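User: two proteins, same treatment. go.

Assistant:
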Amino acid sequence: MKRFGTANWKGSGKEGKGTNSTQSGVLKDAQYSFNTRFAEGIGTNPEELIAAAHAGCFTMKLSFVLGAAGFTPDNIDTKCTITLGDGAITESHLEVKATVPGIDAAKFAECAAEAKANCPVSKLLNTNITMDASLA
């Protein structure tokens, strides 16, 4: 399977403007700029998109890991925060809260650690990945 996204940029790095689009059309010409990346401008940025991808991938992987261990989650909420510093992504931090009937905290922590280590986006990222995982 292959998926693609596109970007277009016009102008200099600081004054220019760009757009991002995805194959599915969920993003179509979503605006990004210096201000959306390094300030509080309106629009998206690559780090926000990586955060959404990591949160989504990890959450689905955790559901599969829990299922393989004999548990079906009622709900998994994941927030991913990407840290950009000195021209590099330096950290991806996952905050996970889940409702999983019948599981104890130790088994949940084991499953969450396995999902963190083995979701495809975690494997792709060449950065420190940290996590706080708890049962709701």
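Protein 2:
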Amino acid sequence: MIQRKQTLFLLAVAILSGIQYCLPFQKVTSSETSWPVCLMPGCSPEINSNIYFPMVLNTLVLILSILIIFLYKNRVLQFKLTNLTILFNVVIIGLFFLLDFVVIEAGRTISFQFGAFLPVISIVFAYLASHFIKKDEQLVRSADRIR
């Protein structure tokens, strides 16, 4: 049901999760070179095993947000899964900033790029979708009471 507001917000979450793979979220600067770090394998010259967990969580957010769109008949489950995507995005943000402390070596500095803040926008869209799903459920329950 594409005409519902929450569907559009969940579609925006899915698009942002897809864009998250291509955009770098950190820029590591060494004494002589600098390179971006993104979730897509092969994006940075030094592959760090610490990006696999955020990559898996981002994939879960992408799959869940698309799945939630098609669960429009079960609003309670849709509400719970939307809140789960919010939780996954919070964990992704925490892992991005945790990588700052794990990856740092002597002589390297790390600066955050725009990709590190995409999950924040995704959280806002997921919250709005959750809000409208809850509103729909309250509307259906109130209509059932009137009968």
